[in-house]
Structures are given as C-alpha cells and as structure tokens.
Amino acid sequence: MEKLVKLQIDGKEVHAPAGMNLIDAGHLADVFIPNLCYLKGMKGFGACRLCLVEVEGMKSPVIACNTKVREGMVVHTQTEKVRDIRRFILDLILAIHPLDCMTCTKAGICKLQEYAYEYELKGTSFTRKKMGYPIDQINPFIRRDPEYCILCGRCVRVCKEQGTNVLDFIGRGINAEIGTAYNKSLRESGCTFCGSCIDACPVNALPEADRWRKGREWEYKKIQSVCLLCGSGCDILVSVKDGSIQKINTGEKPGSAKKYICAYGRFGYDCIEERTKLVSPLKRVKGELRETTWKDALSIVAGKLKDAGKNTGFISTAGIMNEDALALKKFAKNVVKTKNFDTTLSLYSDVHSLRDSQSALITNSDLLVLVGLNPSQWNRVLPALDASIRKRVNRGGKLIVMNSSDTRIEEAAMLSLKGDELQILKGVAKALIDRGLKADKQLKTAVRDAEITEDMEKAAKLIAEADRPILFTSPSLFDAAANISLIKGRVIAVGLESNARGIALAGLSTEGKTYKEMVNDRMKVLYAVGEVPLTSRPAADFLVVQTSHFTDLAEQADIVLPSTTSFETEGTMIDYLGRLKHINQVIEPMGLTKSHRDILIALSKIIKPAIKKPTDAEIKKMSKGKQKLAFSPFVRKEGFDISPHEFIEAVNASVLKGRRLSWLKEALAAVAV
Amino acid sequence: MKVEEIDVNRQIGRIGEILNAREKKRGILIQALQQIQAALGYLPEESVQELSKKLNLSMSEIFSVASFYRMFYFKPRGKKILKVCLGTACYVRGSKNVLNALEQEFNIKSGETTEDLALTLETVGCVGCCGLAPVTTMNENVMGEITGSGKLKAIIQSIRE
Ligand code: SF4
Ligand code: SF4
Ligand code: SF4
Ligand code: FES
Ligand code: FES
C-alpha cells in the first residue's frame, strides 16, 4: 500500500503513494488541478471533465480524478489543449448558470467563480438558458435552488455514501436535474437535514436557508471546535462575524467527503440566542427567582456548602469538558470534602468500560462489529457513528451487527446476528478459537460449551480474515465484547455523551452516593452542573443549579449560576475513539456567564483551600488510560436500561427547544405517520 | 403484477449466476417497474415504496432510474392518451392549433391529465405519417388531416363519452 511512486507533474518531481489519483498527487507538489465533481476521499466520478490533463505518451487527455499515479509518468496540467477544453466546459456551464456573483451567498468560495476568473470568462458565448426549476425552501435549514446547480453530483454522492439517499439525478440530457424521489421537498423525502450536501456543493445550489446577507465567506473568522451534543463529539468549523456565530460546517475542508455532522451540530448553535440562555446569577426570594450579583450568589452557595460538608452531593452531565471535570472532582473532594460526586454517565455505563476502551480509527479498519449498539442518523442517536460506518462500508469495509433488537444499520451489514448478544459473542469466540486463533485458558474454558451457529461461524471467519477489526459495543456488553478483542481486534465502548470517556478517565465517579441516590435521597445541598436531565425537583434541602440555560431543573433551584456554553469556553474533551480534542472558544461569554471551572475556583477561594485551574500537563496525563484488558466473564452489566434517544434529547433539551431544531422534530414526526 | 409477486432470482434467469445480490436487484429493476406500470397504468408512490424495501434500493435511486426513461409515468394516466404531433411536417400544417384547441377545451396543458382521468394530453415529434399531417394519435390509433373543426369535434366528442 505505502509504496511510493515517482512521477513528474508540471515539471515538479512528486513521490506519491501507489494507487493515489493525479489530483491528490498534484496537491503534494502544490499543483492544483481544476475540478468540480471530485470529492477528496471518494473515487473519481468523471462527471465534469474539468480535471483533464495530458500525460506524455498518451494520445488524448485523461481525467486526473480517476487516473492513478504510475512510475515515471510525466503529467502536464496546463497545456493549451486542456486549457481550451476547460474553457469550453466552463462556457457551457455558464450558459445554464444565473451569473449573479454580485449578490451570491457563495461568492468567494464558489468553485465556478474561481475557475471563470482563472479562465477569463465573463459570461457564456452560448445562448443562455433558464430552466425555471422551483426552489425548495419549506424547511428552516437548507435552501435548495436547482437553478444554480451545475450537476456535479457531489451532493448526490455524499448523501448516498452516508446512507441517507435523498438526492439523485433525475431525468436525462438537457432535462437532467438533481432532485428527490417524486420531486418532493426535502422535508418529505426522509432528509435528516445533516447538511452534508451543503458542505459538498461547490456553488450556490445548496446554501443554508438563513444565509442570505449574513455576510460573505471572507468576512468570517473561522474557528475549529468540537460539538458536545452527543457521544460522537464531531469536529466542527464555526464561522463568526461581529462576535456572533453565523454558521457551522464540518471540521473538514470544503470539497472533502470525510466528515459528517448532524443537524444538531450544524444548526443547534442558535440556542445561544434563545431567551432561555442565562446571563446572570439568580436567587430565590420569596418563592421567586430574581437576578443577583455573583458576589451575593457565591457567598450564599459557599455558606451552604461549608455547612453541609459531606452531606453535599454533586451531580453533573458527562458533556462537560475535562478541565471542568477535574476542577469539579477536586472541588468536591478537597474543598467541600464530600465523597458524593457523580455524573449522568452512571446511567448508561460503568467507568471501567469507557476508561479501558481502546483507540482506533474507523477509516483504517476493514471490519466493524456493532455489539448491542443501535446508532441512527434518523433519530440522532450517535448519528455520526452511523454515518461513518456506512461510509466505511461504501468504501469497501465490512460490517457485522449483533443485536437482540432490530436496527436500521443492519441494512448496511454483511452479516446481522439477531439474538442475545452474550450467546453470540461466546459462540463467535469459540469459533475463533476453533479456527486456531490464540486465546488464554480462562477464555477457552468460558466458551467451551458455547453453541456455534452458521452465522457465528461466518462472523468468526470475517473477524479472523480481517486486518484491523474494531468492535463497538454498548458499555453494558463491554466486558463480553472485550473477550473477542483478546483474541483479535480492538474494542471500544461508546458512551452517549460527548465527553463520557474524558469523565471516566478523569475519575469523576462517586466514592459515596451515586447519581440516582443523590437525586432520591435528601441531600443537604445538591449541586447540579451542566444540563442535568431532571424535570422535577430532587429531594434536596437546598438546590444549586449551574447551567447555561434556564432548564426545567433551574426553574426549581434555590440558586442558579449561569455557566458558559462550549462556544464561549476553551477546553478539551476525549472522543469515543480515544482522541484528545481541543475545543476553541469561538465567541465571548454572554452576559455575566463564567465557565464551570471558574465558578468552582471562585467558590473554593471563599471556602478554602483554593483550587487551581487544571494544567495542560494534568489533562495530558489523565487522557492516557491504562487499557490493559484481561478476561472477564460473559455477563451483561445490569441497570443501564435507559432509552438512548430519550436521554440524548433530555440532556440537550435547551438546544433542541430552539426555534429551528424544534421544527425538525415536528416535521419528522409528520413524515413518520 | 403485484410487487410481492416479483421474484428476483427467477426473473433474472441464468445471467444471475454471475451477478452479486445488488447487481441482481438493479438488474431486474426496470423489468419490475414495467410490470408495475403494466398492471396499474403508472408507478404509484406506494408501489415503488414497496419495491424499494424489497430490493433494498432507495426511493431516490429507483426514481432516478425510472425518470431516465420516457416510458415511465409517475402520475395516473387518462383512459385516452392523445399525442399531438409537433414534428416539422405537422407543425407547418398547423398542429399547434390542434394542441391549443385541446388544451383549452379540457383545461389542461400538454403533459397533464384531466381530473376525471378521461384524457392525458401529450406531444410527440414525428410519428412517421407526415403524409397525413397534421397528425394526432389516440391510444394506438393514428388520426390524420385534422384540419377542419369537424374532425377535432369528433375527437373531443369521443373523449367526452
Ligand atoms: S441534508 Fe443530509 S440527508 Fe438531506 S439531502 Fe443533504 S446530505 Fe442528504
Ligand atoms: S446541487 Fe450542488 S453539489 Fe449537487 S449536483 Fe448541483 S452543483 Fe453539484
Ligand atoms: S453527531 Fe453528535 S457530536 Fe456530531 S454533530 Fe451531531 S450531535 Fe454533534
Ligand atoms: S473532477 Fe475529474 S471529472 Fe470532475
Ligand atoms: S411530422 Fe408529424 S408525423 Fe411526421
């Protein structure tokens, strides 16, 4: 695979990996071959012909996107001949294009504009044709305007590859267009409004619905960050102008097919502007919550905490950053001196499963195995995992699904094993051992009596033959699935919240009462951090809620401390694949909000001893788990039976209640009937 | 033929031996669509929905393939299908007037079907009977030399029946 091939592109010597196409090889030497239909990461499609280049020794030009590098190849990308062809193609495209760059939202990053400029085309020499296609704008996310479409097919390919299959080429010849089945609106076509097509489109045919006059690309400051709304923890690119967020794209460069983000991650940022966003501390006076100063609020809370001491409970979500988690643990243990600190993580996982999960990359794996997991782009349970798996499968990877219930992802699977996951795992382990793979004694003994069905045998064969298999498992089945990885492959438990792994590695897990116990027992002070998904007031005597939005729980608090959202704070998190990711602050904190860690540090200065902000070194250290797995019995860990879908909706309630995302829920419900 | 009666393996025949499952399904797609249309006159969304599940091909993909061919219809068609020839010979001899008259009479545009499903009005380019221009076909029958209002009236009358 990694063999290097030497070739020459426009006189420059290039060493490119065998199998690479000429467009990518050109990049290695800073030669940029024009293209409209190529998507980095996908096979060349050959639709636009703009990437034609000349190769010495070949009679006619070849398309660079679908031509592989060969030893000794001599490539010319700018000959008069190919430049003429490109000019002709662009001329044709301009004949069916609106040409309104002066007001076009995409001006500045539009590929057509870029090439028209380069090839000095002010317009077309053909008769211009207006197709008169209707615009689809009955959704608040995406404006689909086929009039601008240049039929490159990029949107079709990304939508297909990730498995949503909404868009396709409709009709043929001069009447060909991009459309949906039965020409319906996106809203009625099963579209999930992930916006992958927005990122893929090189022109203005698929912009965000609200982009009109929200600023041109070159006016935006672009900041790389991470979405913290679910266990996928996707990379995002935030565009900021005049101190507020204008749009969010995937963290990948435009024109790349690599990354996916869902509608929550792309459009959920407007929760920042909702009325429910907290901007100042509140305290309860005569039964009502009223604004107060930080000084007042902190001294009240500090007094209560000093008083309650070990009868204090801290509950938090697992969507807070590493820095906040470490500060919270120190604050609880060393300042308030209580053993009661726990997170929502304990509702769906034990700490060990996430902490001891291994690291791996989906894009590198040739076989993915899903154990008891049901990711779905449609109800947005780990949607990015669903999309990544489907993409991997469409690029030649294989998928095995093991689940006791029906899943939608099994439609992409080569093999779907239905039934009790423990029996399946045992059978597969035994079949692997029977095939002669090495395993330790205990494991061999544990599976001695396992029954091997035909499908288990097939699964074992696939695992045995794969180079880099990864098992993704629900935390409750981690130990059982890890046994397979002791024979072959890697194993990763997937949590529901973005920083579940970071929380587990930070050890923010109770040494006293659990999350559930703290909610139900009568704590002297209960201190909730983040969007804790409780709707009724816990039994506590005094309730402190530290959160960014006026949640159901905040409404019932005695003191509300306004915290920043991830857009207003810098920090780190660890995603489900084990990568330590940096979250950049993209906007200034709104109103009087402070980060979780800063609030806790301020409190510690009053209560004493004062704690410090966790250092980078501390974060680095915690991010490296031990990950030494050993045999453990095939059991399912009990007590983790929450509905992932409901849970994710509950911890993101204030984001989902935003104007746009609530439309999503209604619209999809309407289609589902 | 109903969607549930479609048997992928039987219909694909011997050629199926060298195709994988997905190729097989794509392979019979056109045939399956033809069967649905033969039975129902067009391709109703619900039937295509069923087919989509059965073949594990997405709706958009099936629609894309079907829309490529002019022989498939996605809306119910009229009992009578009238095709006014707009080929050169017919055009010169006034077929546009015939089309306009029919459009007005039934209050539909070319390509549309009346609400009572009595008529679908379409146009074609040369049906090969230029000697009879202007020509219109009704279902499979060719009607030529529609010059006076008499012939047109008779056609309208026969649709109204
Ligand atoms: S928003 Fe997503 S699902 Fe909808 S058409 Fe675009 S890529 Fe497909
Ligand atoms: S809508 Fe955009 S991405 Fe899709 S085919 Fe048209 S130009 Fe290409
Ligand atoms: S999949 Fe999860 S992490 Fe990714 S954008 Fe959506 S909500 Fe955010
Ligand atoms: S990029 Fe090669 S044909 Fe479009
Ligand atoms: S032009 Fe009408 S039949 Fe030939």
Describe this structure in a few short sentences.
The complex is a heterodimer of chains A (673) and B (161). By secondary structure, chain A is of the alpha/beta class.
What characteristics describe this protein?
heterodimer, A: 673 residues, alpha/beta, 5-stranded mixed beta sheet, 21 helices, 24 strands, 16% strand, globular, B: 161 residues, alpha+beta, 4-stranded mixed beta sheet, 4 strands, 11% strand, binds iron/sulfur cluster, binds FE2/S2 (inorganic) cluster
Could you explain how this protein is built, in words?
The complex is a heterodimer of chains A (673) and B (161). With 673 residues, chain A is of the alpha/beta class. In chain A, helix 7 (294-308) crosses helix 17, helix 11 crosses helix 13 and helix 11 runs parallel beside helix 14. In chain A, the strands form six sheets. A seven-stranded mixed beta sheet of chain A has the order 12-11-22-21-20-13-14. Chain A has a five-stranded mixed beta sheet with strand order 2-1-5-3-4, with helices on both faces. Chain A has a five-stranded parallel beta sheet with strand order 17-16-15-18-19, sandwiched between helices. Helix content of chain A is 29%, strand content 16%. The longest helix of chain A has 16 residues, at 80-95. By secondary structure, chain B is an alpha+beta fold. Chain B is elongated and about 60 Å long. In chain B, strands 2-1-3-4 form a four-stranded mixed beta sheet, with helices on one face. Chain B has helices spanning 8-12, 21-40, 45-55, 59-68, 88-92, 95-106, 149-160; strands at residues 80-85, 119-124, 136-138, 141-143. Chain B is built from seven helices and four strands; from the N terminus they run H-H-H-H-E-H-H-E-E-E-H. The longest helix of chain B has 20 residues, at 21-40. In chain B, 47% of the residues lie in helices and 11% in strands. The model of chain B has no long low-confidence stretch (mean pLDDT 87). Classes of the chains: A alpha/beta (673), B alpha+beta (161). Chain A binds chain B through residues 160, 165-172, 179-182, 189-190, 411, and chain B through 45, 48, 56, 58-64, 67-68, 74.
